[in-house]
Amino acid sequence: MRYRIWRVVVFLLALFPPLLWLYMGLTQQLGPDPGKVLVDNLGQGALVLLLLTLSMTPLRRLSAWGGWIAVRRQLGLWCFTYVLLHVAGYLTFILGLRFDRLLDDLSERPYIIVGALAFVGLWLLALTSNHYSVRRLGARWRQLHKLVYVILVLGLLHMLWVVRSDIGEWVFYAVSGAALLMLRIPAVAAWLSARPGKVKSFRKALTAKSAGL
Ligand code: HEM
């Protein structure tokens, strides 16, 4: 309830890009191959949402504002939704719904197998992202949700395979992902968690000093 407004903001921000791309596609503003552009945009959007989801816990540790965690689940589910649309776009615009060609296409584009593995992982996380699963799985829930790092690595590998020569954007995503992974190292995570406390005690000390205590 407390962070409802932020959930609404995240919802609208995540909903906007696919609607814009749809509009641009329908009004012929996506170039000669709109289907391919749509698939690429949704793929990149999914990766950005995955990185944003992973940055919520470090931000919470850094700032102690509870809103980060309140929107984390929603960001993860949006990442899943973008991937669903990305896959639907692939099947429709690239494969042309000719499912008999799927096996041939997989041998022509082996990077799809890597993407599909990440997709399976995302299904597992999406299906267990509800309160019931958190309660039911207990400590195993945390273990299962560490899968998100494997998904990130698979997503990055999948993208690298597609972009091959023009790797500028890929490097940006890979460096951001590596930084987020480093923030999960227990010693670094503990240091981050200690920071808001330190800021608070520093403020307390300052107030006490100015009050002559
Ligand atoms: C069954 C699962 C998947 C399939 C079939 C699939 C299919 C594709 C295809 C065909 C392309 C290349 C489109 C083209 O330029 O010709 C692509 C690119 C891409 N995909 Fe996937 N993908 C899958 C899963 C994923 C996942 C899980 C992610 C991210 C978490 C992802 C992120 C990307 C990215 C970032 C690109 C590159 C976009 C660009 O070049 O700008 N994909 N995918």
From TrEMBL:
The keyword Iron applies. Residues 44-155 form the Ferric oxidoreductase domain. Its main location: membrane. Binds 1 FMN per subunit. Binds 1 heme b (iron(II)-protoporphyrin IX) group per subunit. Its cofactor is FMN; heme b. The chain crosses the membrane at residues 5-24, 75-97, 109-127, 147-164, 170-194. Heterodimer of a catalytic subunit (MsrP) and a heme-binding subunit (MsrQ). NCBIfam families: PRK05419.1-2 (NF003831). This is Protein-methionine-sulfoxide reductase heme-binding subunit MsrQ. The lineage of its organism: Bacteria, Pseudomonadati, Pseudomonadota, Gammaproteobacteria, Pseudomonadales.
